Amino acid sequence: MFLRAQVVGAGLAGLSAAVELARYGVNITLSEAGPRAGGRCRSYFDPQLGLTIDNGNHLVLAGNPAVACFRHVVGATTPLAGPDHAEFAFTDLASVGEKGGESWCLRINDGPLPWWVLVPSRRVPKTGVLDYAPLARLLKGRADQTIGDLVKPQGAVWERMLRPILLAALNTEPAQASAGLTANVLAETLAKGGRASAPRVAVPDLASAFIDPAVAWLAKHKVPLQTGRRLKALHYTGDLVTALEWADGVQAIDPETAVVLAVPAWVASDLVPDLTVPDDHRAILNAHFACAPPAGAPAMLGLLNATSEWIFTHPDRISVTVSGADRLMDEDREALARLIWGEVCVALGIVGDLPRWQIVKEKRATFAATPQQDARRPTAQTRWRNLFLAGDWVRNGLPATIEGALRSGDTAARLVLGYQPIYEGWR
């Protein structure tokens, strides 16, 4: 066990590590290169919209254990909003006519026995029970397989259920994505039933649901956050990190001080010699509109045959997420806003001009969740006995998600403490 720790990076992984270490009385310094905590899960006031928004629409699931534990420990009281049961509404814009597009709602029953596939009103329209057999095959996926190796990427269940949901979870075209990661996700959600699979969204924003309570909890436990502090290099002697080189100078550290490096993969690869990390990433595009949704609009709506993939409605705005959005990164922002707003209007029955808008492009939002990139993920433990890694790109058995980031931070902290990690998949 180390007596002191330097946690570098205050995204969710760094905050998770810092909280776990502080719980056990480790003397911690928490540093962040940016102006605020949160990393890619950040909230900020956008002057173009005149609203506080999240950089992206980050979804968690009711059964995510690390999310529940983290929020409980830091005393987060801001709710995670979502339906009482696992319900996923969809609209197919290709079928739009005078009576609107074809719409349906996937309704997964609460318990692990999947009787919902037996009920036509709960499943994808015009599908039968046998069409859902691929779900059983996906639960047995291996790390060296793609989803396309196990199921044919075609048919109504694929196009209207599996592809849109898995694309959102993996941020990678599902047919080429890791079957092993998919199996892990499904084992913790769909295989446990709707009680674990119900979608949850931070309301009113990510900062109030995750970041602000964690920063406040750490401050209460005498762990202040130092922002605007960028790490330039690590100095090594033998099997130890012996100094941290910051932009404002070099800080020597003793053998009883652990370093938890909770930075993006490409930053870590510059700081740690011979570190293999994921080097292929996928983009996410988010569009935000300063417009209150119409009465009765679903909190979350999946779109098919559209550029938009998921619509999220908030009291003061409508937001849209497009996963695997590399093809859109060089497109004109206003043209994208007009295109997406047109799809929102059709899907939600809105008549009106383009409101104030904002387009947020994250070019390296997540690592590509392919077998090849998953194999490049390092473990939290390194060959230096006082250096540990944290981040959603570190091996944790899940794709790049909030749940995975929190697990990685918890794992790094437990290794610092000399304890066995509680989450499987980190080795």
**Main sheet, how many strands, which sense, barrel?**
7 strands, mixed
What's the rounded overall pLDDT mean? 95
**Structural class designation:** alpha/beta
How many β-strand stretches? 20
Low-confidence segments, given as residue ranges, are none
Radius of gyration: 22 Å
Alpha plus pi helix count: 12
Order of strands, main sheet, comes to: 8-7-16-17-18-15-19
- What is the molecular shape? globular
**Fraction of residues in H or I helices:** 25-40%
Beta-strand share of residues:
15-25%
CATH fold call of the largest domain: FAD/NAD(P)-binding domain
Q: CATH first level of the largest domain: which class?
A: Alpha Beta
Can you tell me the CATH architecture of the largest domain? 3-Layer(bba) Sandwich
Query: What is the H level of CATH, i.e. the homologous superfamily of the largest domain?
Result: FAD/NAD(P)-binding domain
Ends apart, CA distance between termini: 19 Å
Query: What is the domain total for the residues?
Result: 3
